[in-house]
Amino acid sequence: MSRQTSLTQYLIEQQREHGHIPQELRLLIEVVARACKRIAIAVNKGALGGVLGTAGSENVQGEVQKKLDIIANEVLIEANEWGGHLAAMASEEMDSIYVVPNRYPQGEYLLLFDPLDGSSNIDVNVSIGTIFSVLRKVGHSRGVSEEDFLQPGKQQAAAGYCVYGPQSMLVLTVGDGVAMFTLDRETGSWVLTQDEVKIPDDTKEFAINMSNMRHWAPPVTRYIDECLAGSTGPRAKDFNMRWVASMVADVHRILTRGGVFLYPWDQREPDKPGKLRLMYEANPMAFLIEQAGGAAVNGSERIMDLHPTKLHERVAVALGSKNEVERIAAYHRETA
Ligand code: P6P
């Protein structure tokens, strides 16, 4: 059997070679990875575990919560609150931040997560995932507030996701490239299966929910029309389309073979900049995409430069193969 590199070994070697993964951050990532393993087991049980269906409640976004949304959230909170690596956590499923209880030591990191993204796919057995982002707590007093979380994405110390699909895979960056780990269910280990992930600069594959076409702004309509025109249009090449309606699955495909993903502003909710959340969906995914050589914008601006004003604020997203994202940004700037 070929020699396998575990997540722990990868992180220790990164720490040794590059020095910028402090012990506390390494330990935090390992705790999150263990929590994702538990979520993977619960997801994999499906109906056999009594975890399908709705929980009869709504989250802060006003979305119906699935039982697995709540289970995943609880697993992440319980796994991370006692270790001493964190000061507080924020989740798509919780209105306000969760400050580490006084009975536990407080650490210097802040953890944000969407515990189960794409949960509308749970009951139809389509890939879903957990998205997480790690920030450093500014200041060293024990107090921590929502304002401590409101940092631009470029301040992230680490980011990643776990996709629960045909394989369960953990995809991670600590600011020195992107690595992919596959869950070995026999040993319970995350095994390094791809290092130095790179997204091709060009692509022939776009991902967008086409049913919203009549609601888009002109730059998005122009870009997608050109993709649809294919070899008969200005792009002079044919495109393919994918839409999983699970951001983790769409982003994983792009990290694996290139592509471009869009969830743009649309006029259905004109007062909202977009559907996806900046702090625990767009920022971590943007970090991963940029670390793999791609780009991520809200239209005309780099997502990781945006200064958040609210914990659950939304943002428009276009991310993936660099040359496609730069074309989308150019179309937005032309109409600004
Ligand atoms: P729509 C899942 O609910 C999610 O937040 C993302 O994972 C996904 O990309 C998007 O919404 C799908 O939205 O409008 O196509 O159902």
UniProtKB/TrEMBL annotation:
Co-factor requirement: Mg(2+)
Binding site for Mg(2+) 1: 92, 114, 116
Listed GO MF terms: fructose 1,6-bisphosphate 1-phosphatase activity
Major site of localization recorded for this protein: cytoplasm
Catalytic activity: beta-D-fructose 1,6-bisphosphate + H2O = beta-D-fructose 6-phosphate + phosphate
NCBIfam families reported for this sequence: PRK09293.1-1, PRK09293.1-3, PRK09293.1-4
Protein name, entry field: Fructose-1,6-bisphosphatase class 1
